[in-house]
Predict the structure.
Amino acid sequence: MKPIGIFDSGIGGLTVARAVSEAIPGHPIVYFGDTAHLPYGEKSAELIQHYSVRIARELLDLGCGSLVVACNSASSNALDAIRETAGPGIPVIDVVTPAVNWVSSKYDEGTIGVIGTRATIASGWYQSLLTHAGLTAQAKATPLLASAIEEGFQHGRVSSALIEAYLGQGAFDSVKAIILGCTHYPLIANQIAAQLPSHIELVDSAHVVAHALKLAIQEQLANQISAPASSSSLSTQRFLVSDLTESFALGAQRFYGSPIALQERKLTTAQD
Amino acid sequence: MKPIGIFDSGIGGLTVARAVSEAIPGHPIVYFGDTAHLPYGEKSAELIQHYSVRIARELLDLGCGSLVVACNSASSNALDAIRETAGPGIPVIDVVTPAVNWVSSKYDEGTIGVIGTRATIASGWYQSLLTHAGLTAQAKATPLLASAIEEGFQHGRVSSALIEAYLGQGAFDSVKAIILGCTHYPLIANQIAAQLPSHIELVDSAHVVAHALKLAIQEQLANQISAPASSSSLSTQRFLVSDLTESFALGAQRFYGSPIALQERKLTTAQD
């Protein structure tokens, strides 16, 4: 079984890695967090493409047979470049399309909210896909939210003040659902829900992405998932970061949901 | 007159650039914000050194005759490497030493607080210099504060909640002064002061750094500052960033205090 390569600008994509490991138990995974260059959400599209392609190459060099772009900023700004790097034989799953597909399968009309990094929202890709599905998009960049969650501000005054600043004062009251367009946001989904009207559904893409990946692998590499779930699956999971600091090591468990060990792996070209 | 090269991981160091241009009017300045790689405050010492040395080289290539490391994370983690790159003929001014010198000239004893990024505090350099000066250091990393200010959260509930989380509940009540060990913090100095006991002095290093630079230049390059203040000084100032996005362009004025135009200058080696 070729490993599934999952990457993000940092450790937020571990929420997706967890969902994938639950959806396809026993399948080897290589996770790569580009902590040397995070956050992607504040960078230009060109630079996000440059970094994303390099990590895609790294994961392919490590033998991965499929790629999950577990970063909304990279999915929105670099997917074509990543697909080109991967070539036709490697399924590339992004986190945007499955979320929009899921929403459009549930809602025929109305306004859907999207929140994400500046790069994700500026790309306009969520908006374009939602519009194409006959829905109206209400998108807003909420750039400090991911950093706040990464710093552990999850259920107190800081995150509450941020949610109020970004989503409060009735700004989103007319939407049917809000897509949490950043892998960090699921960690404060409960608090967001509590500060919004109760009719608004929050859409966490991690699980729909994991489901989409499972379908893609079943379709293209059917024999690979026929292996039975293995109790030693953890030993076939590797979690790599391009710059390892103590705070990333400590934060990893919070995103993954259980203890994991990060290893530093410098990128093959100089980290400049 | 050779320009003064001033650099930071982003646009926060513009507070220092402004102070320098006020202290040494008419002197040409080249500012470099490494927006492609910010924030340095979350990176390892090794990576901060790598990025800092590259920017120092870039500024020397642009003809700068002195360097100001207007970033506390770089000053704390990469100063030796930057000095080695600059060589003996180029004065290199950091933002840590002048702040500690200023504090130790005013206080003979007692506890001095320091707040900064994770990389700044983890380096232990402020603490070491304060201890060497006979003072007791109380240091705390306040990592989300700089991002919040960069996002424009300056005088409302978000910054108030952060100040309370990091500095509240009497944690700093016994200090005589707190060094604002990050170039972003001066923008919320008033709010920090309002939430702390009134006896605590806040030390903004931008002005003491500008003064130290003026002395260094007077000492080593006396002829260079004998030129009269020029009303056309703005035309001799260049503000470069390694990745230009709209939000940096908009934010620059807030840090510099008046409108300036950022130009993108990719680093000479590939931005990887």
Confidence is low (pLDDT under 50) at residues 223-234 of chain B. The longest strand of chain B covers residues 111-116. Strands of chain B lie at 4-8, 29-33, 66-69, 92-94, 111-116, 136-141, 177-181, 201-204, 237-241, 263-264. Chain B has two domains: 4-94+206-264, 97-205.
